[in-house]
Amino acid sequence: MKTFITITAFILVGVLTALFFGFNQTANSIDYDDEQEGISEQVIIRFSHVAAENTPKGLAARYFAESVQMKTNDEVTVEIYSNGEIYQDQNEWEALTSGKVEMIAPATAKLSPLFPDWQVLDLPYAFQTEQAVQEAYEGKIGEELLNDLKRSNAKGLGFWYNGFKQFTNDQHPIIQPVDMDQLHFRTMPGPTIAAQFDAVNASTSELSFNKTYRNLEVDFIDGQENTVSNIYSKKFYKEQSFMTISNHAYLGYAILMNKSFWNKLSKSHQEAIVSSMEETTDWVRRHSIEINDSQIRELKRTSDIQIDVLTNAQRKKWKEAFLPVYIQAEKSISPSLLREVKRIQNHYSSHN
Ligand code: SIN
Asked: In the structure, which protein residues have their CB atom closer than 6 angstroms to any atom of ligand 1?
């Protein structure tokens, strides 16, 4: 009995000593490790996006990261996760607003299920030149759309450019609206995009970007619409026989930061980020055209895809076919935004 009491007492003293020193050790290591001071000054921005690195968005993300690092003397580091490596279309908004990442750059269409006004940027043939798109993104439309985000935990930093969308499919050349009849397309989300395909009797499935290739490969879908840089970098052209240069709508990005994170940044870091954002926007506006152009040259040189370019007369027919989309849009897009689209269209009417 005596031996039992002695052993129990030893074990008890041992456990209490270990617990005491163990806790104390943890507390001390946080309080007194002077290396922690340096770590706490480092700000990391985890930037997740779904596109490839050799695209306008991928290259702009890199440009932005380098600029922020330089302007903050290495105090802020932007870590880029591309190709949907950590978050994809269906969960990147949640990841941003709950603070799992600090930055995302979804295609503007992907905000439309939460913020219906964002559909205005998907109206077919709404903006027919790069200048018209710039006027929308950097003018009244962009301002109103970014304001709309204020009711969420996302802060809109601005817009980045990619390019005009083109149709691809594996059935036959698409030249006239009637050529869309009965084809099945992958789309980004939003009633406006669905209405665009409805108007020409095509059916659609909303699929995430990173699942598109697989769905083309197994022939679940006949085609998709995208910029040349996405068609090239994601190798969609390998599963498609026909591409139509229709320039029927524009694909660009909303650049978003977690709002709680933004509010905690120092004033000087916020200023550096805003300035890097302005420089990157300017860079990607100028370079996105060149990136898409050089990749279509590569497609012509290295692939078998047939590329048809719509003439102005053919484009006129598509614009007529898409008119019902504008009527449907009145149900879900603010009149002030639709008026601004009209104004921009009239302003650039010589290009129509
Ligand atoms: C992207 O460019 O980020 C993806 C666009 C798409 O989902 O088609």
From this structure: 50-51, 57, 107, 162, 188, 209, 226, 230
Q: Assess if residue 64 is contained within a domain.
A: yes
**Hey, which of 49, 50, 206, 292 would you mutate to test ligand 1's pocket, going by the most ligand atoms within 8 Å of its Cβ?**
50
Give helix then strand counts, H and E, for the chain. Answer: 14, 11
267-326 residue pLDDT tens = 999 999 999 999 999 999 999 999 999 999 999 999 999 999 999 999 999 999 999 999
Distance 69 CA to ligand 1 centre (A): 27
Burial class (CB in 10 A: 0-12, 13-18, 19+), 105: buried
Closest CA to ligand 1's atom 7: 209
What is the pTM for the complete model shown? Answer: 0.88
User: How many other CB atoms sit within 10 Å of the CB of residue 292?
Assistant: 23
The domain that holds 81 is classified in CATH as 3.40.190.170
